[in-house]
Amino acid sequence: MLIVAVALSAVGAFPAYAEESDHESASVHETAHEFHPNFLGMFVGITSEQRREAGLALGIEYERRLNKSFGIGLVAEHTFGDLDFWVFAVPFAYHTGRWKFYVAPGIEDGDHGTESLIRIGAEYAYEVGEWEISPQLDLDFVDGEEVWVLGVVFGKGF
After folding, report:
1. Domain boundaries, given as residue ranges, for the chain
2. pLDDT digit string (tens) for 53-108?
3. CA-based torsion, 83, 63, 34, 10: positive or negative
4. Cα gap 156→135, rounded to integer Å
5. What is the C-alpha to C-alpha distance for residues 128 and 41, in angstroms, rounded to an integer?
6. Rounded CA gap, 58 and 60, in Å?
7. Which of 45, 69, 109, 142 could disulfide-link to 86, CB 3.0 to 4.6 Å?
């Protein structure tokens, strides 16, 4: 129930993507951040110094865009350090322009066993040629603890 409430709150909090009028010439909105139905990316980041021992995090992300604003995906991320953890999650995303906001229920599997996890996060996309580079900030709620994850996604839409 908490997942549904957070997802609905996130969707209602941000304005819908505005359409360009026919009278406008090619603008930044038309040329920047083209909509692709699929996205595949690699994540590189670090975690906070509590539950995951300030480790290096590497992951892979896939998202299927349902339309210009909404998408659903899969995340598999491994955190290296004194304690090794895997995070597997299913993000429900809302896109507005270059911004992406998401909530992702999932699990954390590591030395302490398997725990339920809720990840909330945001990222901002920069286009570099055909590639997208997106700084990302996540907050994981797992077993009564909060874990911050900061990193960058390198990916490509297709």
Report:
1. 1-7+89-143
2. 678 999 999 999 999 999 999 999 999 877 788 999 999 999 999 999 999 999 99
3. negative
4. 14
5. 14
6. 7
7. 109
Q: Please give the full DSSP string across 5-32, using - where no structure is assigned.
A: HHHHHHHHHSPPPPPPPTTS-S-HHHHS
Strand ranges (DSSP E) for the chain?
Answer: 38-47, 56-65, 70-80, 85-89, 92-96, 99-110, 113-124, 126-128, 131-142, 145-157
Q: How far apart are the first and last CA of the chain?
A: 33
Q: Which two tokens stand for residue 95?
A: 């896109």
Say how far apart CA 12 and CA 134 lie, in whole Å. 23
Give the type of residue at 55.
G
